[in-house]
Amino acid sequence: MISKGISREIRKMEVRFNDFMISEAEFVKKLRVFIESLKRVNNYLEELVLNSEEIRGELLHYRMEIVQKLGDVLKLEGKLEHEKSHLWESIGGLILVLEKDFQRISSHNDHNE
What we know:
Elements: H1 4-46, H2 53-112
Helix pairs in contact: 1-2
């Protein structure tokens, strides 16, 4: 009989995989927002006239926006890596439980021969 550990490890891995996929989707969304912000700033800078105080103020605003968006992207990347580590942990746990069961079954079959 195969242990309940395998079922538990499979469920744990599935939950962690789902968490990973959600985190990855959030990361991709934030990265797209960041890229769009960079495009907007680039377009603005191409039209920039550096002698205007109003334009300098807008430039500072855009620079802060980029920094904030990059911070959002990096924060989600950290979360994504965290979820990925849980996923690898589950895969390792599942392999260990499977190996223990296979060895137990093999040992049991060797005794019956």
